[in-house]
Each structure stands twice: as structure tokens, then as C-alpha cells.
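Lab meeting notes turned into a lecture example. A postdoc, R.K., suggested we walk through two folding results consecutively so the class can see how the record format repeats. The first protein's sequence and C-alpha cells come next.
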Amino acid sequence: MRYSPLVERYLLTHNYETMNNVKGWKMLLTQRHEAQKEVDRKFRAYKQIADQSVLRAKQLNDEYLEEKARI
């Protein structure tokens, strides 16, 4: 990781050292369980709510533009 020159100077003048605390990642295969299935179900529901909100916003915008043009 590289720091900006200002941060590097600060670290050097205050005798700080940096170290890499991120360990290597190992990909493990696990079986899906019921909690993960429940999370997936909830996210599908949230996606559907978001899509419905977008459609409703577009409808309201169209109605607004029509009313604006009428006035």
C-alpha cells in the first residue's frame, strides 16, 4: 500500500511502521443452509419492491408532466 507523500513524511518523523494485516484468503466450499435460503428470499422480495417503486415513480412523473402540459 502506498501513502501520499504527506502521510509518508508523518509516519517517518513519528517513527511509525506499517504492516500488512490482511491474510491470504482461502475459498472454502460449504453447503447452503436454510438461513442462506431465507436471506435469498428476502433479497428477492426487496428487489421486487424496488422495481415496483421505480415503476410507480415513472408513472407519477408521467402524470406530473401531463398535468404540467395541460396547465
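The second example is placed directly after the first for contrast:
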Amino acid sequence: MKFVSDSTPTCGVTSSGPIFQGQNVTLTCSMTYYYRSTRGARPHATISTSIGWQSIAGTFLSNSSTLQADDGVKLQVDAWTLASGTEIPSYNCTSTFDFSDNRANKTNRLALNSVSWTCVSEPVLISCK
């Protein structure tokens, strides 16, 4: 079985132009991965994926998660926040992959360790109106 990450997650503010106080701002986080069995064999593990935004302080933002099929699988989550103060602070976005053994014969055990990556968005300055 092969699990290949195309890249670490990319994340940041995706709203275009200058950001003004009181404006709704979109942050996007995405990651592509490939999950294939070796030599055409049936995979012996299932994979459960998640991706989500979390603020540095540990409170979750409102978000909408999408799972898109491409050459691999693209995980993407958008979050919205209201621009206030002087900057949009850094936020964490974490992609997590959990594996479970789906074989009927459990004689030979599979390594089922979870894998996760965290992306930290850059702070963005907010302009006054």
C-alpha cells in the first residue's frame, strides 16, 4: 500500500485585494494525497481523512469542508472570519489521516499510525476605511 502526500497543506487568506475593517474574509486550506495499493493488490487498510481550521487560541472558526476527486484526492476547507483590529491573525489548519486494518485474517498486523500535517497561515494586515 502507498500513501503519498502531494504536498504539505497550503493555507491562507484567499480574499482578493486590500482587506478592510468589517469585511468578511475567506481563508482556504487544501492538501492533495494519493492512496494506492502496491502491485495492483487490494488495499488492506481503510483511510479516514479530515481537514479543519482552528485558531491559535483553540476556538474553531465556522467552516465548510469539501472532498474533491482529482488525480489524487484533494481535501479543502474554507473558513470565514470578520476583519477587525489591525490584522487577521495566524490560524492553524490540520489535515489528519487515520488508518484501520480491513483484512479478515489479522495474523500479520499492519502499522496503523495516524499521520497529520499542520499549516499556519500568515497574518494579514487590515486597512482602515
